[in-house]
Design brief:
This protein is mainly β and 403 residues long. It has four helices and 35 strands. 10% of the residues lie in helices and 29% in strands. The protein is elongated. The termini are far apart. The relative contact order is 0.05.
């Protein structure tokens, strides 16, 4: 009986010691990490962190060893440190050659990453949701990067790439392919409000600007705009100013959808087609500027017309002015031309106008007065689409023409 009690006491003591060692992060060959022997039988991958009674033993400072059981540690597996919210610093040894998908996803306390020269590739979404990550340094050896590696890294202010890297480069802390044709990641935590995308860029990765909440002014190369419009800019509701570069040929329907704070837009001379629904819901728009040598369009006082001035395509509906005089060259008032012009109270329409298209004055809730430069009978001859022009019809008419 005494022997049994003594043995039980030893077992309990060992359990307590093991538990204490585990929770105090005692040094071990494994450095508190889990490993998987790779198929070649010659190296290991870090596959996670150690557990105790089913609970992961996360640490604030993680040091990955270069070897385990006398074999090199060459990889960090997919999801190895996923949602490790305690880790604030990480040391990666020169033995690591590849980092797998989602390896550090959700490591929200991690602030800085430096990849050693040994790393040749990183997978997709590797640092996704690392919300405290501010700085990343890539060595000359990284020649393969998966999809959206820094998605939702909203504090990221700088990505540095070794100048001898043959596949990637950094310009002003942003990540590009070496030839400069692809923008992989804009450092979205920057405080700057304006950004000019280099002329060489023809492709922007899908999450490159996700979380760029400070960015309000964007200059886009014509070739990039022509290829993908603003499909890659997910924070477009923050944009107040957009400059489209030469080479873009069209502005299509809904290109500026959700640009609810857009105030100014510059259109290059190369644009030959603008869809008349392109600026729907751009209710803050105060100025549209068309380059003077555009063959199809012109701007007058910040409003958009065709080159001959016969069609008023878009009134900048965010203007503060309460009165507007339509030029006497205008024959057609385009569909949705004044849609959402809430400040407009009075409009003067020349007798040259023959057609007012659908929803031209939709949402002009304060429009109360219309001055027509012709006679009442001439007004009645204007073709006014009944759809969405109730505000125009209800406004008090003043006829200035000789009866």
């Amino acid at each position: 009986m005494h022997t049994v009690k003594k043995s039980l006491h030893i077992l309990i003591s060992c359990a307590i010691l093991t538990s204490a060692c585990a929770f105090s992060s005692c040094a071990s060959e494994g450095n508190g990490l889990q490993y998987t022997l790779l198929a070649d039988g010659k190296s290991y991958a870090v596959s996670g962190v150690e557990t105790f009674l089913g609970t992961h033993l996360y640490r604030e400072e993680v040091v990955i060893p270069s070897s385990y059981k006398n074999l090199p540690v060459t990889r960090i597996d997919d999801n190895a440190f996923v949602r490790n919210t305690r880790m604030t610093s990480l040391t990666i040894p020169n033995s690591i050659v590849y980092i797998g998908d989602h390896a550090f996803s959700g490591c929200s306390a991690l602030t800085t990453i430096t990849l050693p020269d040994s790393v040749g590739g990183i997978g997709s979404w590797v640092f996704e949701d690392c919300s405290s990550l501010t700085n990343v340094t890539l060595s000359k050896s990284v020649i393969s990067i998966g999809y959206d590696p820094f998605e939702n890294c909203n504090s990221l202010t700088n990505i540095e790439v070794d100048e001898n890297n043959p596949a990637y480069m950094s310009i002003d802390g942003n990540l590009y392919t070496k030839d400069g044709t692809r923008l992989i990641q804009y450092s979205v935590g920057k405080t700057q409000t304006g950004f000019t995308i280099p002329e060489s860029v023809t492709q922007v990765d899908s999450s490159a600007f996700t979380g760029a909440f400070n960015l309000t002014t964007l200059s886009i190369p014509g070739a990039l705009y022509e290829e993908s419009k603003l499909s890659w800019f997910y924070s477009r509701e923050n944009l107040t100013s957009v400059i489209i570069g030469e080479g873009a040929t069209s502005i299509d329907e809904r290109d500026f959808f959700a640009c609810i704070n857009l105030q100014t837009l510059r259109i290059p001379s190369s644009v030959a087609f603008i869809n008349r629904d392109a600026f729907t819901d751009c209710t803050q728009l105060t100025d549209i500027t068309v380059m003077a040598n555009n063959a199809q369009y012109q701007s007058i006082d910040g409003n958009l017309y065709d080159k001959e001035g016969r069609t008023l395509i878009q009134y900048a509906v965010g203007k503060a002015q309460i009165e507007f005089v339509i030029p006497d060259t205008v024959v057609y008032i385009g569909n949705k031309a004044f849609m959402g012009a809430k400040n407009l109270q009075s409009v003067t329409i020349p007798k040259s106008v023959t057609d007012i298209y659908h929803h031209a004055f939709d949402g002009c809730v304060n429009l109360t007065s219309v001055s027509y430069q012709g006679t009442e009978s001439e007004w009645l001859n204007i073709q006014i689409d009944p759809s969405g022009n109730e505000a125009l019809e209800k406004a008090t008419k003043h006829y200035e023409g000789v009866k």
